[in-house]
């Protein structure tokens, strides 16, 4: 669906935009495991202001194609986010349930600011609205894999975004 070249080009643009928007500040990336790790690493390399990074593991999909709606926190952050400029990094926003749950929880820890950044957004699937500051690509309602996105844990390593065919 999206070539390796196009994904990398867009991530470079997002990194430049973020560096400009946060000029003179430090940014603290929170990557949501596991999917967003590939995107977060590439994005961090394209940001020219000081960057720190932490990880959190939240799962709602298990091994299926549908969100269970139950967001489970399997691993919390290592560091406090008090007074930090936080950017939560996701690989995809689908129903919006994961970030809808996560955002207020992180905001209650009083960061200086908290915004959301996602490589992909599937607007047709949205069930709850979440304000997203940076979106790489809007994609149609198909189950996508690659660049960190999995189907039953596979295909995360593809360097492009593809569509998982029905079995
Ligand atoms: O907007 P939503 O419908 O909530 O979907 C988005 C969430 O689903 C995926 O995570 P998943 O639970 O598949 O975990 P993974 O990143 O480990 O694959 C993705 O990384 C987001 O966290
Ligand atoms: O389209 C998708 N692909 C992989 N993981 C996902 N999690 C939500 N939507 C998707």
UniProtKB/TrEMBL annotation:
Entry keyword annotation includes Zinc-finger: no
Pfam families: Pribosyltran
Pathway: Purine metabolism; IMP biosynthesis via salvage pathway; IMP from hypoxanthine: step 1/1; Purine metabolism; GMP biosynthesis via salvage pathway; GMP from guanine: step 1/1
Molecular-function annotations in GO: guanine phosphoribosyltransferase activity; hypoxanthine phosphoribosyltransferase activity; magnesium ion binding; nucleotide binding
Co-factor requirement: Mg(2+)
SUPFAM superfamilies in alphabetical order: PRTase-like
Signal peptide boundaries: none
Keyword Nucleotide-binding: yes
Positions of the Phosphoribosyltransferase domain: 9-151
Class of this enzyme: transferase
A single cellular component GO annotation: cytosol
Domain of life of the source: Bacteria
Record localization: Cytoplasm
InterPro entries according to UniProt: HGPRT, Hxn_phspho_trans, PRTase-like, PRTase_dom
NCBIfam families attached to this UniProt entry: HGPRTase
Family, similarity comment: Belongs to the purine/pyrimidine phosphoribosyltransferase family.
Function: Purine salvage pathway enzyme that catalyzes the transfer of the ribosyl-5-phosphate group from 5-phospho-alpha-D-ribose 1-diphosphate (PRPP) to the N9 position of the 6-oxopurines hypoxanthine and guanine to form the corresponding ribonucleotides IMP (inosine 5'-monophosphate) and GMP (guanosine 5'-monophosphate), with the release of PPi.
Protein name: Hypoxanthine phosphoribosyltransferase
């Amino acid at each position: 669906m999206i070539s390796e070249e196009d994904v990398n080009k867009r991530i470079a643009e997002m990194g430049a935009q973020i560096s400009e928007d946060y000029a003179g500040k430090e940014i603290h990336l929170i990557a949501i495991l596991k999917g967003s790790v590939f995107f977060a690493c590439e994005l961090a390399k394209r940001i020219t202001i000081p960057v720190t990074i932490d990880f959190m593991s939240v799962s709602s999909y298990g091994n299926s194609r549908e969100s269970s709606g139950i967001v489970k926190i399997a691993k919390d952050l290592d560091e406090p986010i008090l007074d930090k400029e936080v950017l939560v990094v996701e690989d995809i926003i689908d129903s919006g349930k994961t970030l809808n749950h996560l955002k207020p929880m992180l905001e209650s820890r009083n960061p200086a600011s908290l915004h959301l950044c996602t490589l992909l957004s599937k607007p047709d699937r949205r069930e709850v609205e979440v304000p997203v500051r940076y979106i790489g690509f809007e994609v149609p309602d198909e189950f996508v894999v690659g660049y960190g996105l999995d189907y039953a844990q596979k295909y995360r390593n593809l360097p492009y975004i593809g569509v998982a065919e029905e079995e």
